[in-house]
């Protein structure tokens, strides 16, 4: 990033207009405010000569719709050139000139790249090609695969998925502030959280699952996180979600579970910083409940409260309090959340119902509080929803039953929970379908994600002493499949290993640096301009075939939930190495 841009970054309140960090904007322009389709800027310069009436010729990087000059008049010369004039600005040579102006736009945010002040050129900036972002995760020398490096990269991927105002320690340099008006349609601050996948909707249901499972990995494979020096990055990934959930819980029995509409969002192929479509906010409440959404969010906050208990007790207690409220809401007012948030039906319908989320939330509250009342309530859910386990075929954002078996056994020790957990893993290892290369194939959509999920459960079972050696070896083989231990020597993690994917179905990383727009980003035959380090792509078909094709979202999209259990499994592999 150039020093000029760093100056602008430090002075800006919100930089949703900056798209890639590539722009060499005139360094006497500081953005002081931004909102969709507009930014306000402050111009500061030293007068090169006596000024008795100002004329400032501006060239923009892309066409503005209009320019407002508060101290005078703005005249359009052509699409990218405007002249600001004022008879009210009179200063002596060497004195400071300062004023504000506003830029309106509907496509790329226009930046000032050339200035002529009363006939004197004071800025002649040029577009520069930035140095591509380098992998911030160093190799560690671990073999046969560098699990520690991939774990680090997995958390880098979550930084690429961040929505809202980005922090100063953001490692993904081609992402900037975005969606800063989320929630304005309902009068709540709903900024933050994660963009779901290759799109820019914030789907609360899979986001909550992601946070729960990331927290789980930090809790039960803490040693691996410590060895890889990833504890703080893992906590930051969880907190980016939980901060958002706390905002989204706007009343006792009210939770916002989605921002953005699937159709308009998916019709837009571009950077999140460039979005201009409406982003409606959707909620559940006591009149339109959603037990699965409220229950999973409760589980996420309860699990996260354990993660932060020793380092930030006040934050931990806040999350635990909200988790209790959300679980009670989920249990008292029962329904499938997509009956309230109908837009999510086509994307994240709760096929397994809400019984698994009720038990899941109760178990995490039992673990977080040590209160056996929650364990008793979890047993009630087990009996009510007939958790025989015979029909369970995966662990995912939708179906938590296999994980419920494991967590129940950890907390209770009962044989019925142990048997259900062991039975599920035995089916996965011995009777589930596989690709010819050896990847367990539990779903045609995101096969890699499902393999990582059950590998994590096998590693967790091993940690509990259940068929420890067999489960570890099987899980090691599945993680190896994802990292390149297959006849094709194909890594499925962007930026890692041999022949990794270069064209993930992911909007923001597919967009070139400004001044180019993203109109050709979807069909670009070459690699994505930005390497989406650490993202696990969907993976092969059942016959093992896989093509690195951005347009094939079934096999090449990425998503927050894809990397959740994968991260925990990598930490477990670090512990075993």
Give a short overview.
This protein is 39% helix and 14% strand.
* Strand coverage percent: 5-15%
Main β-sheet: number of strands, strand sense, barrel status? 5 strands, antiparallel
The number of helical runs is 18
Query: What's the CATH architecture of the largest domain?
Result: Alpha/alpha barrel
**Approximate helicity band:** 25-40%
Secondary-structure-based class equals alpha+beta
The order of strands across the largest sheet is 5-6-3-8-9
Taken together, the total number of domains comes to: 2
* Rounded Rg: 26 Å
Layout: helices, strands, pairs:
Blueprint: H1 3-11, E1 29-35, E2 38-46, E3 51-60, E4 66-69, E5 73-78, E6 81-91, E7 96-104, E8 112-117, E9 120-124, H2 147-160, E10 202-203, H3 204-220, H4 222-227, H5 231-248, E11 254-259, H6 262-266, E12 281-285, H7 291-307, H8 313-332, H9 345-348, H10 355-369, H11 372-384, H12 401-412, H13 415-430, H14 447-463, H15 468-483, H16 507-510, H17 553-556, H18 560-576
Helix pairs in contact: 2-18, 3-5, 3-7, 3-18, 5-7, 7-8, 7-10, 8-10, 10-11, 10-12, 12-13, 13-14, 14-15, 14-18
């Amino acid at each position: 990033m150039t020093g000029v841009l760093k100056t602008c970054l430090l002075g800006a309140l919100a930089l949703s207009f900056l798209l890639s960090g590539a722009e060499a904007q005139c360094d006497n322009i500081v953005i002081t405010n931004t909102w969709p389709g507009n930014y306000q800027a402050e111009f500061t310069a030293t007068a090169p000569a006596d000024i008795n009436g100002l004329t400032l010729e501006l060239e923009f990087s892309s066409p503005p719709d209009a320019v407002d000059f508060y101290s005078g008049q703005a005249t359009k010369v052509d699409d990218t050139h405007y002249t600001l004039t004022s008879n009210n600005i009179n200063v002596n040579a060497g004195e400071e000139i300062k004023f504000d102006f506003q830029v309106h736009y509907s496509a790329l945010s226009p930046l000032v790249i050339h200035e002529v002040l009363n006939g004197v050129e004071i800025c002649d900036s040029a577009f520069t090609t930035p140095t591509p972002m380098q992998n911030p995760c160093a190799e560690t020398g671990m073999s046969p695969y560098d699990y520690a490096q991939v774990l680090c990269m997995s958390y880098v991927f979550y930084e690429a998925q961040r929505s809202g105002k980005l922090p100063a320690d953001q490692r993904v340099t081609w992402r900037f502030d975005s969606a800063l008006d989320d929630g304005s349609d309902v009068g709540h601050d709903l900024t933050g959280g994660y963009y779901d996948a290759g799109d820019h909707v914030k789907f609360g249901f899979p986001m909550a699952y992601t946070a729960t499972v990331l927290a789980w990995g930090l809790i039960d494979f803490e040693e691996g996180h410590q060895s890889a020096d990833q504890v703080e990055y893992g906590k930051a990934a969880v907190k980016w979600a939980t901060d958002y959930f706390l905002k989204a819980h706007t009343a006792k029995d009210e939770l916002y579970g989605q921002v953005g509409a699937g159709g308009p969002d998916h019709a837009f192929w571009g950077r999140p910083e460039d979005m201009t479509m409406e982003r409606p906010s959707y909620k559940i409440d006591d009149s339109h409940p959603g037990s699965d959404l409220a229950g999973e969010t409760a589980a996420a906050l309860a699990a996260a409260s354990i993660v932060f208990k020793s380092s930030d007790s006040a934050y931990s207690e806040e999350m635990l309090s909200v988790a209790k409220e959300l679980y009670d809401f989920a249990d008292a007012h029962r329904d499938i959340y997509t009956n309230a948030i109908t837009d999510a039906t086509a994307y994240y319908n709760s096929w397994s119902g809400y019984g698994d989320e009720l038990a899941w939330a109760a178990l995490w509250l039992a673990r977080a509080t040590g209160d056996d009342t929650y364990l008793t309530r979890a047993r009630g859910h087990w009996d009510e929803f007939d958790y025989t386990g015979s029909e369970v075929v995966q662990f995912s954002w939708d179906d938590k039953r296999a994980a419920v078996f494991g967590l129940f056994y950890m907390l209770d020790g009962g044989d019925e929970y142990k048997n259900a957990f062991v039975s599920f893993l035995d089916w996965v290892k011995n009777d589930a379908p596989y690709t010819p290369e050896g990847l367990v194939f539990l779903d045609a959509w995101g096969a890699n994600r499902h393999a990582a999920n059950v590998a994590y459960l096998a590693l967790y079972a091993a940690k509990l002493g259940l068929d420890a050696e067999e489960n570890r070896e099987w899980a090691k083989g599945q993680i190896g499949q994802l990292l390149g231990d297959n006849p094709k020597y194909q890594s499925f993690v962007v930026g890692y290993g041999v022949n990794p994917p270069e064209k993930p179905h992911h909007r923001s990383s597919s967009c070139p640096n400004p001044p180019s727009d993203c109109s050709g980003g979807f069909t670009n035959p070459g690699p994505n301009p930005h390497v989406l380090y650490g993202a696990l792509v969907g993976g092969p078909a059942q016959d093992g075939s896989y093509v690195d094709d951005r347009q094939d979202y079934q096999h090449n999209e990425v998503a927050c939930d894809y990397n959740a259990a994968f991260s925990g499994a990598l930490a477990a592999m670090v512990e075993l190495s």
